[in-house]
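Support case: uracil complex. Customer-provided input:
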Amino acid sequence: MSQLHVINHPMIQHKLTIMRKKETGSKDFRELLKEIALLMGYEVTRDLPLDTVEIETPICRTQAKQVKGRKMAIVPILRAGMGMVEGLQTLVPVAKVGHIGLYRNEETHEPVVYYCKLPEDIQDRLVIVTDPMLATGGSACDALQMLKERGCTNIRLMCLVGAPEGIERVQREHPDVDIYLAAVDECLNENAYIVPGLGDAGDRIFGTK
Ligand code: PRP
Ligand code: URA
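Agent response - structure generated as follows:
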């Protein structure tokens, strides 16, 4: 069974509250999402294995730690997942970035694929899928399935806000994928929006509504 990690650090909770407010504009929304992604990145990468290497400081030779040659890829689900990429790249500058384009059909709420471009060696990488919203879980499950069809075996899902319905669906369909969230909200409304949520993340990031 996949693990659910809810990262309830006070600074993350504080920033998320500002993001939720309807009066918060796109510029602040984007900056806060980037900051939270960086902070969440610490937890998502917490168990990466380390190597001991010999280095020379200005004072002496010593043994020090470095992340073991584990390659990473960040895969945002377009559009809103893009808002979490820069924060993660600040933490892991060498990570490659793939893109999966999905949008929800507004009537059926089913995801529709329109783009997929992934690093050639994606199957050899630890993949962090980003998307601020985990609502029905349809988009996340489709993206995870696409990655598995490309041979990925080591995938983590990093979202901001999740609904119980979406969390359960990912855990049922992808029990090998750990989920990282800043908050578990109450439920979905009749339009499959998260309640209380923060509205349409893509529109708030890009100012399209
Ligand atoms: C939003 C969000 C997720 C999806 C979540 O994207 O960013 O990708 O909905 O809903 P689900 O869990 O029910 O699939 P949207 O389809 O609105 O596209 P956008 O990011 O381009 O705005
Ligand atoms: N997508 C969003 O952007 N927000 C929601 O609440 C649900 C899906």
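The longest helix spans residues 26-44.

Case will auto-close in a few days if no follow-up is received.
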